[in-house]
Design brief:
By secondary structure, the protein is of the alpha+beta class. It folds into 3 domains: about 70 residues, Arc Repressor Mutant, subunit A (Orthogonal Bundle), CATH 1.10.10.200; about 90 residues, Alpha-Beta Plaits (2-Layer Sandwich); about 70 residues, YebC, transcriptional regulation domain (Alpha-Beta Plaits, 2-Layer Sandwich), CATH 3.30.70. It is about 40% helix and about 25% strand. The strands form 3 sheets. A 4-stranded antiparallel β-sheet has the order 3-1-2-9. It has a 4-stranded antiparallel β-sheet with strand order 5-6-4-7. Strand 5 and strand 6 form a beta hairpin. Helix 3 packs antiparallel against helix 4. It is globular and about 50 Å long.
Length: about 240
């Protein structure tokens, strides 16, 4: 399996800046609301449990989390939060999937389309890009210092695949097995840094041209800055 996009690592520093100005809470709250639509009890809804955990790790206040859950279950009334998926091609032809959560589909679609068009890309029909990706569980683990023991423990936890990403392991699971594998790894003593469902590219495109790199980073940053965007996925690797 090819590695998932390094964009996930590039944007970590930006996530810290977003958290400082509170912008990240909007995204986290929308993700919780979408997950809660299928059930507001995290014990019975693994997707909601993951969304809540991510919110807590970003120091989102408990009251905000509870309010987001009630928005998703409809207890607060008002406009319903919907999940939306947009596909397209960015600078240098990179394939992009954009996950959004919003109470205004027209606004969200317009904003996403504008970011594509202003940065040399274009939106595509549903399915035109996503066939190049697999929906997987992705877990990032801190290393213990004993790589052989780590890999054996990860295999024992029924992971599909594991990649050595330097200071940590990137573990892939089947979509339905993410919560179970994550719990097994935590019980085995691993420190779980991230655990999410993700669109993992089947193949990646290496970007070496410095001009293309700059355009791609500008494009991805602009997309991430939209309040309605929950997550972005792409198939590029920076050479």
């Amino acid at each position: 399996m090819s590695g998932h996009s390094k964009w996930a690592k590039i944007k970590r520093g930006k996530a810290v800046e977003d958290a400082k100005r509170g912008a990240v809470f909007t995204k986290l709250g929308n993700a919780i609301a979408v997950a809660a639509k299928t059930g507001g009890d995290p014990a019975m809804n693994p997707t909601l449990a993951l969304a809540i955990q991510k919110a807590k790790e970003s120091n989102m206040p408990h009251a905000n989390i509870e309010r987001s859950i009630k928005r998703g279950t409809g207890e607060l009334g008002g406009n319903i939060i919907e999940e939306m998926i947009y596909e397209g091609y960015g600078p240098a032809g990179i394939a992009v999937i954009v996950e959004c959560a919003s109470d205004n589909r027209n606004r969200t679609s317009s904003e996403v389309r504008t970011v594509f068009s202003k940065n040399g890309g274009n939106m595509a029909e549903n399915g035109a890009v996503s066939f190049q990706f697999d929906r997987k569980g992705v877990i990032e683990l801190s290393k213990s210092g004993d790589d052989d023991a780590d890999q054996m423990a990860i295999i024992d936890a029924s992971a599909d695949d594991v990649l050595d990403d330097g200071d940590f392991w990137t573990v892939y699971t089947q979509q339905k097995s993410l919560h179970e594998v994550k719990s097994s790894l935590a019980s085995a003593g691993f420190k779980v840094q991230e655990a999410n469902l993700a669109y993992v590219p089947q193949n990646t495109v290496s970007i070496a041209d410095e001009n293309d790199k700059a355009k791609i980073i500008k494009f991805m940053n602009a997309m991430e800055e939209l309040d309605d965007v929950v997550e972005t996925y792409s198939n590029f690797e920076l050479a």
